[in-house]
Design goal:
- By secondary structure, the chain is an alpha/beta fold.
- The protein folds into two domains: about 5-225, P-loop containing nucleotide triphosphate hydrolases (Rossmann fold, 3-Layer(aba) Sandwich), CATH 3.40.50.300; about 235-425, Glycerol-3-phosphate (1)-acyltransferase, CATH 3.40.1130.
- The protein has 16 helices and 15 strands.
- The strands form three sheets. It has a seven-stranded mixed beta sheet with strand order 9-15-14-10-13-11-12, sandwiched between helices. It has a five-stranded parallel beta sheet with strand order 2-6-1-7-8, sandwiched between helices.
- A hairpin with a 4-residue loop joins β3 and β4.
- The protein is elongated and about 80 Å long.
- The two termini are about 50 Å apart.
Length: about 425
């Protein structure tokens, strides 16, 4: 299974210490990207290569042999574990890491070394540049004073002579360079979890990250282990049919259900149902009250709740990580549509949101265009209070491919059209 943990942040925040320990406890491959840049820096210094000599730098990187393990770093057959942490490298690594050719080579190497593995990486741009689609991201931070204190103590323990002033100047210099770099600048990824470690011990940081990584790893396995991709067995189909019938009966008892426009669902091919999201029960009504087998796309957190996890497996709900480009789930959605299955998606837009010009999520339109299927808009009306009236108003199929032109905004326009149709259906008196 491929699983990527990205930890970014400035130097002295505990990234390296925490990352190596988490790798050991969670059985992840620790790829020390900082050490990789330090090895390149040492290589250039040893060969007295000018940092502006692009061709010589390329040749040096091409010919260097670098081996990384949990306790030893080898460069061209020599143990440099201690050497890359000493002052000459400390003073130059930031400058070297900003060299475009070095950055490109290391990013390519990091991606190659991580293919098909469960990996944890730390650096300044792992979550923003190297692995923007990482399964989980963290941004560790701390006050400058605390970082200076930590780095000074770390150097003293390793027998590295330095003053507090030297450490501070080095950290401030690196911060400035890293944040203002034209290549892979230090910044927090939008979907990264921010952790201020100033008043936290290493054990406290480790415990916090461990819990979140373990949860994210479990989410990733729901897809990888085959709950939603394995062939359907007769026993599973029977259980789903039985549960569906039972829950549908309860649904009719709980609400006065009315369905309108169901003739629009009479298609043999695959398609996508898009509806407004009023209540956690609205998806249940679409799944339970229709003849076709409908699979909903839902946030992966659903699988953390035991009863919902069981129902998710039974009805093959496709978990997706919100706020990121979940490639694995997208592939499953496309495969389902090509197999003439029906998917249910909430576009995550409301009438109020559209009136405020909030951008509608484009996932449904993207999938429909990619799989060459149509979208059925659904306007759900009701409060979902016991014994109240709930209406499912199914509209006519929308072919989003008609919007697919040279216009770069075609997918946004198609998504807005779908949402506009949903809103119209919610306003119809039926």
């Amino acid at each position: 299974m491929s699983f990527i943990v990205a930890i970014d942040g400035p130097s002295g925040t505990g990234k390296g210490t925490v990352t190596s320990e988490l790798a050991r406890k969670l059985n992840l491959v620790y790829l020390d990207t900082g050490a990789m840049y330090r090895c390149v820096t040492l290589k250039l210094l040893n060969e007295k290569i000018d940092f502006e000599d692009t061709e010589s730098i390329k040749n040096a990187i091409k010919n260097m042999k670098m081996e990384l393990s949990s306790d030893k770093i080898m460069l061209d057959g020599v143990d440099v574990t201690r050497t890359i942490r000493e002052d000459p490298v400390n003073s130059n690594v930031s400058q070297v890491s900003h060299i475009v050719e070095v950055r490109q080579a290391m990013v390519e190497l990091q991606r190659k070394m991580s293919e098909g593995k469960e990996v944890i990486l730390e650096g300044r741009d792992i979550g923003t540049n190297v692995f923007p689609n990482a399964d989980i991201k963290f941004y560790l931070d701390a006050s400058t004073d605390e970082r200076v204190k930590r780095r000074l103590k770390q150097n003293q323990e390793k027998g590295i002579k330095c003053t507090e002033k030297e450490v501070r100047e080095n950290i401030e210099f690196r911060d400035n360079n890293d944040k203002n770099s034209k290549v892979g600048p230090l910044r927090k990824a939008e979907d990264a979890i921010y952790v201020d470690t100033t008043n936290m011990s290493i054990k406290e940081v480790e415990k916090l990250l461990y819990k979140k990584i373990k949860s994210a790893k479990r989410d990733a396995k729901w897809i990888e282990r085959g709950y939603i991709t394995t062939p359907e067995t007769k026993w599973k189909k029977f259980r789903r049919s039985f549960v569906k019938g039972f829950l549908a009966g309860l649904y009719h008892i709980a609400f006065r259900v009315k369905k309108v426009g169901t003739e629009n669902l009479d298609m043999d091919e695959g398609y996508i149902i898009c509806a407004n999201h009023l209540n956690y029960l609205d998806a249940a009504g679409i799944v339970l009250l229709n003849k076709r087998y409908i699979r909903f796309v839902a946030k992966s957190d659903l699988y953390r709740i035991p009863i919902l996890s069981w129902l998710g497996h039974l009805f093959n709900i496709i978990p997706i990580k919100r706020g990121k480009n979940d490639i694995a789930s997208i592939k499953i959605c496309l495969k389902a549509l090509k197999n003439k299955e029906v998917l249910g998606i909430f576009p995550e837009g409301t009438r109020k949101g559209l009136e405020k010009n909030v951008k509608v999520k484009s996932g449904a339109a993207f999938l429909a265009a990619k799989a060459k299927v149509k979208i059925i808009p659904v306007g759900i009306q009701g409060t979902f209070k016991p014994f109240s009236k709930v209406v499912y108003n199914y509209g006519k199929p929308i072919d989003v491919n008609q919007y697919k032109t040279d216009d770069p905004d075609w997918i946004d326009k198609a998504s807005e059209e779908v949402m506009n149709q949903i809103i119209m259906l919610t306003k119809e008196k039926v």
